[in-house]
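Teaching assistant here, posting this on the class forum so everyone can see the example we discussed in section. The complex has four components, and the goal was to see what a joint structure prediction looks like when all of them are supplied at once.
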Amino acid sequence: MNPPGFNIAAVERDTGLSKDVLRVWERRYGFPVPDRDVNGERLYPADQVERLRLIKRLMDQGHRPGKLIAAPAEELTALAPRRSRRAESAAPTDASGLTDLQALIKQHDAAGYLQAMQQRLARQGLQRFVQDTVAPLTRQVGEAWEDGSFEVFEEHLFTELTKRLLRQAIAALPSGSRGPRVLLTSVPDEPHILGLLMAEALLALEGAECIPLGTQMPLLEIGRAAAAHRADIVGLSFSIAFPQRQIPGLLQQLRLILPTAVELWAGGAGILRTPQMEGILKLDTFDAAIAALADWRANHP
Amino acid sequence: MNPPGFNIAAVERDTGLSKDVLRVWERRYGFPVPDRDVNGERLYPADQVERLRLIKRLMDQGHRPGKLIAAPAEELTALAPRRSRRAESAAPTDASGLTDLQALIKQHDAAGYLQAMQQRLARQGLQRFVQDTVAPLTRQVGEAWEDGSFEVFEEHLFTELTKRLLRQAIAALPSGSRGPRVLLTSVPDEPHILGLLMAEALLALEGAECIPLGTQMPLLEIGRAAAAHRADIVGLSFSIAFPQRQIPGLLQQLRLILPTAVELWAGGAGILRTPQMEGILKLDTFDAAIAALADWRANHP
DNA sequence: TTCAATGTTTGTCCTGGACAAACAGGACGT
DNA sequence: ACGTCCTGTTTGTCCAGGACAAACATTGAA
């Protein structure tokens, strides 16, 4: 399909490995050794790109690149792990039919999935639906995508349909005007929105006034938006896929941009390993978010 | 506000200017001249970042960086232009209250905007709502954003709220299972989804079975998804902001990937200047899309 | 006016060096 | 055995300055 091969920018897009990293690996480990075009620029053959994608996936699971780059096919074996802790303890806990939901997506049965989810929503109520269905299902789909049993388009379909369900449920709520004004968004390079929608659903359910700005807001814009909307709280969501090392710096920078009176809350699967920081509320669970909302109300009579 | 300043990665995130560009501008034009930290690394003061954002905006309007970087405040004057053709002829045509809707967003009145839009939806019906309200409003907001009278976060709020309205309207439709199966998505580097949602609303209204995959699907994935969903038609949307010169190549590549039996439709403000191509249906207007759907049905009894 | 040839601007890629933060592993004391 | 400090290694990001081709502007001819 493409005999020419991928240039370095295309590989960066496809693998998520920066140009700097691709070049420094070549220098150090001698692994991706791309061809060169007439102009001396790197031209990666498709199989090397494939290998890089695999390596990146394993790195995201915690492996280190130095080890991965040596070993031709043993990596394929290393695919399965990384479900040591939760998966084993979660699998028995499942029972609740999440696997069936996942299977519906896998069979590309959009209508069936929507129907099943709507039933669950009606049965569980919005709060439990978010906590017991959407959140674990999202994690499960993320894992399936990581270990290759979900295609990109299947993950997209899941996301798109679930977004609709949540937005629909949120729209059905009375527009809360009692609690704090919460501005919800994510930083650049964080395109995942499901976490934000789940948070919005729970906060709106408690009567907070949510201002959804979508994803990928530049930090300075978040500051302006907070001022323009007179927000009491800025809520950010980080997915598990977000480069964790960048999080503390981002939060600290945003903390400096925002007035002290505006609280900064961070949540999502991406922040679990982030340390506590001054002036930033780290929300490890949805219950923590609900508790934080109650706290805020207690302190702002 | 932030005495430390922004490092080069943060500036890249916030302005969209790559590190390479930031460095080469400094070398060539002598403009962003950041401080240096103890380690000799660039540290951009906030005002320089602000100026860079302004320059980037003007560049997106078609200005060239070399000119922009000379001239201290004349740029502020250069903000207004870029409304030579349409705005003048469109302004008198307005009348229908689109300006009021835009004003609601500008005032950050989310609830008011939603209410006004819902009223219009009820009054006009979905089809006319999409064609006469959402589409022109989207174009108008895009223009306002280009000439600087809309902030980034205001444009995000508009998009987010409008997305909700459309999705809600779509969900309320009976799940069409009569017409063709239409797979709706966009290519990588095309994150705008409003066009797709408008198309989905109109097609679903006609009873077509839409499969919404969200945005930014790699081409090979589109092919796999089309097969998996047994799609009859693949519909792509290109916004006005998409680099137009890439469009023909992308479409041709995708045409090769898809089986001949699967039709390829392209729409959106971005394709108006794209030439007609063999095996690809170019939809300049929403009416054209509806007509194309009728055609397909006539040919597939 | 339209089109082709020429010059200028501008983004991206290159090499090879450097450094600090993150990590792994061992020594030490409890 | 367990936790804490220290030390060496791994790894990502940044830097400088050179090069080139694609995009753009401009000029001149048909």
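For the discussion questions: Confidence is low (pLDDT under 50) at residues 82-92 of chain A. The interface with chain B takes residues 1, 13-14, 108, 110-111, 151-154, 156-157, 159-161, 163-164, 167-168, 170-171, 175, 185, 187-189, 191, 211-214, 217-222, 224-225, 228-229, 249, 253, 256-257 of chain A (CB under 8 Å). Think about how each of these relates to the inputs above.
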